[in-house]
Every structure is written in C-alpha cells, then in structure tokens.
# Entry
Amino acid sequence: MGIIKAALDAVGGALADQWLEVIEADSMGDTTVFTTGVAVRRNDKRNNNFKGSAGTVSNGSVIHVYPGQFMMLVDGGKIVDYTAEPGYFKVDNSSAPSMFNGELGEAIKDTFARIKFGGVPSYSQKVYFINLQEIKGIKFGTRSPVNYFDQFYNAELFLRAHGTYSIKITDPIKFYTEALPKNAYRVDIGAINEQYLSEFLEALQAAVNRMSADGIRISYVASKSRELSAYMANELDADWKALRGMEVLSVGIASVSYDEESKKLINMRNQGAMLGDAAIREGYVQGAMARGFEAAGSNQGGSAQAFMGMGMGMNAGGGFMAAASQTNSAQMARDAEEKKAAAEAAASGWTCACGAVNQGKFCSECGAKKPEAAASWTCACGAVNTGKFCSECGAKKPEDSSWFCSECGHKNEGAAKFCSECGTKRA
# Structure
C-alpha cells in the first residue's frame, strides 16, 4: 500500500487517457504551508474515472509532485506513504511504502515510523501537500518596549522592533500531525501564526537580551539581522523542530525605536560626550554669545534697550563666560601638548613586536629588548644600505678593514699604517 514512480514515457499530453486520475497540489502561494491535492481535468470527458468519489484517490492514479513540495498519501487520517522528490508517482495499494525522502534525507523515516498506517487499505485515501520552500514575510512587532542594558551608555534602555521573519518546514510529517488544524483543506501561515508569534516575541526578547550581554550597542541592533537570526535560532529551533518540525530561517529588522526616557538618556550621553571636547565647548560658548548679540539686534523694543539689557546680563554672566573660555583654552593647549608629545615619542622611539611604542632599551609592555640597529654602509654607487648587498646595484658589502690602535684604542678606517689620533704604528 503506497506509491511507486511512474514511467515518464507514459506521462504525456493525454494524461487522462493513461491513468484513472492525475492529482497535483492546489494553488500554493508564498505563504501557503499546506494544501490538498486536486484532480487535473476532473470534468474532462476523456477522464476514465467515472466512479471515483470527490476527494478520494483511486488505486492506479498518478500524483504529480513539483520541486519544493512534500506529498503525503493519507488513508483514514494516517500517512501510508510520502515523497519529497519531484516527479510522477503511481498509487499502488498492493505495494509497500516507498518513502522517497528527497532533500529531507533519512531522518524523516523516524517520524514516519511512529505514525504510519498499520492496517489494510480503506479505499478512502487522500493526497496532501506541504510547502518545503522558505515561508517569507511573516510580520512581527514588539507589543511593549524590550529592556536592553547598553554597556556603552551604562544604562537600562528600552526599544521597540518591527520587521519580518521567515520559517522553513524541516519535518513535514511532524508539522502535519502537530501544527496543522484537523480536516483543513488549505492553510496559510497567517491562520496558525498567533501562537507562534507569541513564542517568537518571547524568544526575540531573550535574543535581544543576549545581544546586550555580548556588548552590542543598542544603535547597532538594526544592522545585526544576521546575528539576530543566529540568536533566534538558538532560542527557538530546538523547541520548534522537536514540537512542530519547523525552524526560523531568517529575521529582518525594518525599524528600531526607543521609548522617550531612553531617547533622553541617549541624547544626554551624546551631548556630554561632545561637550567633553574643549574645542566643541568653546565653539558652544562663542555660539551662545553670538546668538545673544543677534537676538539683541532684532529686538522690536529697540536695539538700544536690548543692548542695555544684554550689557546688564553680560555684567552678571560675563565672569562665567570668560572663565569658561579660559578653561577651554587651557584644555585645548594641554590637548595640543599631549598630541605633540605623543607624536615626538612615536618619531623618536621604537615599536615593539607587541605594538607598544617605547623610548628605553626594553619594552614597557612585554619587557622585550630593543632590537639592535643594523650598521649602515655606503656603496660605491652612493646608495646607503644595511644588508650584505647594495639595494641599487647589487654590489656586495666590502669587508671591514678598520682597526683599533693598541695604545689609545681609537678606531681607524681603511689601510692606514699609523693611528690618526696618537701616531702609533699599526700592529
């Protein structure tokens, strides 16, 4: 009792002439997860199956399976055979189940073994199809803000996320028995998504919290769809695969927004970071003074009165403004000195293999000794070199003919016979 592959040469334009029925999946869209099989040209006058009941598969009929589809032959509510391979398959109630696994491999046989039909054919067989392609565009949105501790801001922030995710059915037999409503003719993902969406959002909050623990800044969440998909897979796949035979394939975040308190904290931190720069602070002070002069000049009560009021204000606050400018100037001068010192240190120092810039003979980070500088020599062509051969003309480095005086210790170059310092003859 099962299906066998039909000969391709017997499947042609006159399908109804060759077989009792030719059955294939009803229209299957991008969001369709399940549909029943329908007879091709049921009302065609050449169809030889005049006694078959509607929705019943006759022995000897042919089932057409397209790529990306999983076909099940069901008898009395129990699965008697299946295939995930594209092609034509003949219903043969005298044969054993063939179980063409296709892309699903051997793992699905375990599921089939637990629920397979164990009796005799009831002759009320039906054909169902499950979509094995990626089911895309399932929308989600957080119902309430999700907490997110951001290590950069050192604060507990709250965000909302909206986007879409996709799933893939990896064990269609388990999906059929556990996830689909009974006696359904056709099922789109939206019809069964309410429960899964609640579980998805719970896992989303856990995944977002995991990203927070891993130190990802809150402003980077929207650009971390791939990482979020991996987090979601870790949170959901084990349960969804075991319970329903499906898994999360990808997560796309369309927008991330923050609640009002989080916005205030982020803006306050950003402003503080900017005003920590002395040059920006001084620009802010000068800009504030300029805006005051501009407002005074455009005062409808008269510029003289406005400048008088401004002068009184400046007398009251001028000391603060002047002190602020002096502080900013001093800070900018210190910053410039530090940059200059760092540049000089980098220019005069040496860089260790660990990356630290040092001035002494040993590295301040790892303790490694400063490498000895290679002695340079000048070639006859004029090029200065440190290796054994000239980098310009390839001439070999000349042998060292220098000697030290036995009396004064002075180093003499070349083949001189007397010391240039004390006149002692070369030994």
User: Anything to note?
Assistant: Helices lie at 15-18, 108-115, 172-178, 193-213, 225-244, 260-275, 278-297, 303-348. Residues 9-17, 49-53 have pLDDT under 50 and may be disordered. Residues 161 and 256 are 5 Å apart (CA to CA).
